């Protein structure tokens, strides 16, 4: 998928080594793995919504092992407290001082498992971490280590014991997508791979954290033309004007879509974003950021259908308009 135009990007093979490494564990989900790495390169986070057992946890574990990163898992339950996520100060009787005990959020790669099974109060503990890369406890703000990547999983809202994620929480995830069931052949391959030993146990790092940070910095250098920025704005603004939408996407969505476009272009060995990059990524970046009207819900309209309509209706810059 290389551009015919000569490019200065030369680092994408590192990313594809990571993708291929994760594919040793997660079978037949190339697109979903690539979307995860787009989020990782652009400093964003991912929300996976799907039924249990389709490989959500294995995907994030494989990503962490491919980086040799510090990995933490938070199992969200109804009785989980905010301090169980961010950490807590513990009084040491020997020193007569309080010492901060870091929570599991303070890792490079964090799996927020079944995030919608906990209360809104505990969900809110993630807001600062997802947006600002820091947590505040006992009046002190602590910066999280870089890189910092959260992949949250949630069960479909129809499942018992789930809480809908608030809009502010959803808006802080760069992408939301599903993994889906494997095909019969893919499921057979899964059985063959895990028959004697799970492949996750043999997975080795293929990239260092320093390498990843350098890649993230280079992604920021990918050029975004004014016409592409205007296309992003037009898409996001259309979500606010659509007749089926009660609450449209925020300016944070525009920023997220631009940064995702930079990372996607970088992975395609390009140093510039084209409108087709944005068009491809828009459904994953916008669908979870809108609220449908009551009438739309009653007519079985979905967020995905609304964004699909918007992408089809908004004019795409072509020719000189899309050129750098």
Write the layout of secondary structure elements.
Layout: H1 12-22, H2 30-41, E1 46-49, H3 56-67, E2 71-75, H4 82-86, E3 87-92, E4 97-102, E5 109-113, H5 120-123, H6 127-132, E6 134-137, E7 140-143, E8 149-154, H7 167-170, E9 175-177, H8 184-194, H9 209-219, H10 226-241, E10 245-247, H11 251-267, H12 275-286, E11 291-292, H13 294-298, H14 303-313
Parallel strand pairs: 1-8, 1-9, 2-5, 5-8
Antiparallel strand pairs: 3-4, 6-7, 10-11
Structure, explained:
By secondary structure, the protein is α/β, with parallel strands linked by helices. The chain contains 14 helices and 11 strands. A 5-stranded parallel beta sheet has the order 2-5-8-1-9. Helix 11 (251-267) crosses helix 12 (275-286) and helix 12 packs antiparallel against helix 14 (303-313). It starts with 11 loop residues before the first helix and ends in an 11-residue tail after the last helix. Mean pLDDT is 87; it is low at 1-11.
């Amino acid at each position: 998928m290389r551009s015919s135009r000569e490019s200065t990007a030369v680092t994408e093979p590192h990313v594809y080594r990571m993708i291929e490494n994760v594919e040793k564990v997660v079978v037949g989900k190339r697109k979903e793995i690539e979307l995860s790495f787009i989020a990782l390169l652009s400093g964003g986070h991912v929300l996976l919504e799907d039924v249990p057992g389709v490989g959500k946890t294995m995907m994030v574990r494989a990503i962490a092992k491919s980086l040799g990163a510090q990995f933490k898992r938070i199992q969200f339950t109804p009785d989980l407290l905010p301090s169980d996520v961010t950490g807590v100060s513990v009084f040491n009787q020997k020193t007569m001082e309080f010492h901060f005990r870091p929570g599991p959020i303070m890792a490079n790669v964090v799996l927020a498992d079944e995030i919608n099974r906990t209360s809104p109060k505990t969900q809110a503990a993630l807001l600062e971490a997802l947006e600002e890369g820091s947590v505040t406890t006992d009046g002190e703000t602590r910066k999280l280590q870089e890189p910092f990547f959260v992949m949250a999983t949630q069960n479909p809202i129809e499942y018992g014991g789930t809480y809908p994620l608030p809009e502010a929480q959803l808006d802080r995830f760069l992408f939301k997508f599903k993994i889906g069931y494997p095909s019969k052949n893919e499921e057979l391959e899964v059985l063959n791979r895990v028959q004697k030993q799970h492949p996750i146990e043999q997975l080795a790092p293929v990239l260092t954290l320093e390498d990843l940070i350098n890649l993230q910095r280079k992604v920021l250098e990918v050029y975004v033309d004014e016409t592409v920025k205007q296309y992003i704005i037009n898409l996001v603004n259309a979500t606010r004007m659509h007749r089926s939408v009660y609450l449209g996407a925020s300016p944070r969505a525009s920023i997220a879509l631009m940064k995702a476009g930079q990372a996607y272009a970088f992975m395609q060995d390009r140093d510039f974003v084209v409108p087709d990059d944005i068009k491809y990524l828009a459904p994953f970046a916008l669908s979870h950021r809108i609220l449908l009207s009551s009438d739309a819900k009653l007519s079985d309209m979905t967020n995905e259908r609304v964004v699909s309509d918007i992408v089809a209706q908004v004019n795409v810059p072509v020719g000189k308009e899309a050129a750098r």
